[in-house]
Amino acid sequence: MPGVKKLSGEDWTFEPVPRSAMRLFRMCWQLEAWLRTIVYVELRASRLDWETPIQQYVRDWPPRSIANDKRLHHMATPHQAALSYLTLGQLWSVISDATNWPLFEPYFPPKGNAEVRIEEVKTIRNRVAHFRDPHPQDEARLELFVRDMDPGIRRFCSRYTVGKVPHNPAADPVLTELESVWECGGCGGYGIELSHPCGWLYAPTPHREKPLMNATLDLLTHRQYSLGSSAGVIYAVRLHPKLNNRMNVVDFFERTKSFHKDIIHIMLSSTFNELSVTIPAVHGPQRTAELVLKVLSAGLNSSRGFSGCPVDKTQVEWPEYVLWPDHILTFYCDEIQEPILDSS
């Protein structure tokens, strides 16, 4: 047509995706990913049959979407837990269940307020997921909820990563169990030195002055933590190989695979010279202590004389319970002031 300029490739700027939809999708991704993490950790920490409270809200168990995802094995993702395949509605049903709510209450606004706003979030999420134009106020609504959730996410991160001291150090049954077996058949005899919330477990001679590996045992609790109850209590075993050694993460993963079902996460550091494993105390003192010792033994064997390259994500099919160095739970501390949920 006369007077109409023909557009070249460089001039072509038409973008069919609304900017607001991109921002909404980003906020929804963050929010839903954190909700799954919180549900996973708190249910794992509170009961051995942790998937039972989830099953009643899913028509088919395990969700049919798992089989559909794994059927295309050439493009399958590493997600293995059925929890990863729940819809946002199913996830909220688990959280808001009257029996489960006390586990999650510290991380949310008051329940009545949260329920109304989650309904709005679900609507916004569905609009974005099904490629419908957002409402003009969707950004403002979701951003406000994300901002209101950020302090709760921070409380969760602190609960799950910052070590506490027992109310009564002498009454910690897991530490008592570890002390009773440390030198006779425990990891002390292997030359490991363990720092725990109440002191130290030293390696006996000949490794007393020069342990083969240092480790830290942290007690992770929530604000409802009560003396004598293992519900919600988590022990974090942090492995620190000798100065010139790295952790052979692939070897450690293989050595511990037989009891992965009994742990919560394996967390990798940015330098791969240490890692952490979180263990729920609901296994009972004897089994929890046994798992701590197994992690320590595997860590020592996987770090002896190893100074190889950092692990490659493509080396094995890493499941979702392995957290990589870029995940905030692997480096979080209470000194972090920046928002965890980015609403920009």
Provide a descriptive summary of the structure in words:
This protein is α/β, with parallel strands linked by helices and 344 residues long. It folds into 2 domains: 143 residues, no CATH class; 143 residues, Yope Regulator, Chain: A (2-Layer Sandwich), CATH 3.30.1460. It is 38% helix and 10% strand. It is built from 10 helices and 7 strands. The chain has a 7-stranded mixed β-sheet. The model has no long low-confidence stretch (mean pLDDT 86).
Question: Which short descriptors sum up this protein?
Answer:
Yope Regulator, Chain: A, alpha/beta, 344 residues, 7 strands, 10 helices
Structural class, from helix and strand content? Answer: alpha/beta
Helix content: 25-40%
Rg estimate, integer Å? 23 Å
Q: Determine the oligomeric state from the structure.
A: single chain
Give the strand order of the largest sheet, numbering strands 1, 2, ... along the chain.
Answer: 2-1-3-4-6-5-7
User: Helices and strands, in N-to-C order?
Assistant: HHHHHHHHEEEEHEEHE
How far the N terminus sits from the C terminus, by CA atoms, comes to 42 Å
Tell me, rounded to a whole number, the average pLDDT.
86
Shape: globular
Number of E-type strands: 7
Domains, number? 2
- How is the biggest beta sheet arranged? 7 strands, mixed
Poorly predicted regions: none
Q: How many helix segments? A: 10
Report strand %.
Answer: 5-15%
